[in-house]
Amino acid sequence: MSDLSITYHVSRIMQHHDISELNRRIAEQSSFIEDIKREVAKVIIGQKYLIDRLLIGLLANGHVLLEGVPGLAKTTAVKALSDAIQTKFQRLQFTPDLLPADIIGTMIYNQKENIFTPKKGPIFANLILADEINRAPAKVQSALLEAMQERQVTIGDETYPLEELFLVFATQNPIEQEGTYQLPEAQVDRFMLKLKIDYPRREEEIEILRRMTQKDIPKVQKVVSPEEIIKARSAVLDIYMDEKIENYIVDIVFATRQPANYNLPQLEYHIEYGASPRASIFLTLTSKAHAFLQHRGYVIPEDIHAVGMDVLRHRIIVTYEAEAENVSSEDVVRQIFNKIEVP
Q1: What kind of architecture, by CATH, is found in domain 31-225?
Q2: d(Cα 61, Cα 127) in Å, to the nearest integer?
Q3: Over the stretch 45-81, which tens digit does the pLDDT of each residue have?
Q4: For the chain, which terminus, N or C, has the lower number of CB atoms within 10 Å?
Q5: Which bin fits 310, alpha (ψ -120 to 50), beta or left (φ > 0)?
């Protein structure tokens, strides 16, 4: 999207909707974002895309799946974010012998009182890092489903609510498939964002080796409370979205289901299943969160373009024909964004 069209869109919003007060309030309430980024930057060099998307997941209250080779600071970034907001953090190392009870907890027999009592598992925290989630079998991965979707856990006959601030950040290694289990589609769809993490640039790697080989490695300090994050989530929902932007989001999602109706007949042979209504909801929430990161009280098409790939890449299932032609879901998303007219 060109700078000229962005300027036109913004001026149109300002002309027809008096949102100056909302814009001022969002700018004020989002000021802590820079504080978090500054603290996380003490231990994470570069990786702006990763940090921004973790913050979007945090602000939009959506789980995040991180895909990348080992050593790209995925785990360190999540831990640094947790330290910056002083939350209860739990890292779960997924292995082939992990059991569902190892995650959610189980009932323990109390011999003294002759009763069974619940022992809550590590899922009862604020930020959960499910490290190498694809190394555990399907029954363990499924144990996360209720927690991720319903924000509650059932142990025995009792159901226990999770913390109000509760998010799952899961990592998976895309290159080493021996001893791994493909994530069920139902679980993949519960991740608001799927990120693909790449290697740092050369100058960034020089800074990494210099900083991480010193005697005193910097430590992340708390700069915001969980209560402030929850308050910020409410502010994100207040961000203004024009009706034309809403229609733009729905057009993008419908183009994954009915591409011929959007002058994309070639995608009829490449898309097996399009995105569900969850994609429309998540595109709306994440684009608002992206605007919040920019300290802006309204959504512009650039926000949707920024998060669109991360929301849609794991929600479009391509056909065998597409795979044979080396057409990925990301290629499909790019064609849709290039074709759908920007409001």
Answers
A1: 3-Layer(aba) Sandwich (3.40)
A2: 11
A3: 888 999 999 999 999 999 999 988 877 888 888 889 9
A4: N
A5: alpha
In the chain, what are the domain boundaries? 1-30+239-343, 31-225
The dihedral through the CA atoms of 244, 336, 273, 291 has a sign that is negative
DSSP-assigned letter for residue 192: E
User: pLDDT digit string (tens) for 165-184?
Assistant: 999 999 887 766 665 677 77
| Record: fold of 1-30+239-343 | Helicase, Ruva Protein; domain 3 (1.10.8)
**Angle subtended by helix axes 301-312 and 277-293, to nearest 10:** 130
Helix, coil or strand: residue 105? strand
Q: What is the DSSP string of 5-34?
A: HHHHHHHHHHHHS--HHHHHHHHHHTTHHH
Q: Report CA torsion sign: 92, 97, 98, 102.
A: negative
In degrees and rounded to multiples of 5, residue 257 shows phi and psi of -100, -40
- Can you give the pTM of this predicted structure? 0.88
110, 117 contact by CB (below 8 A) = yes
* Distance in angstroms (rounded) separating the CA atoms of residues 81 and 36: 7
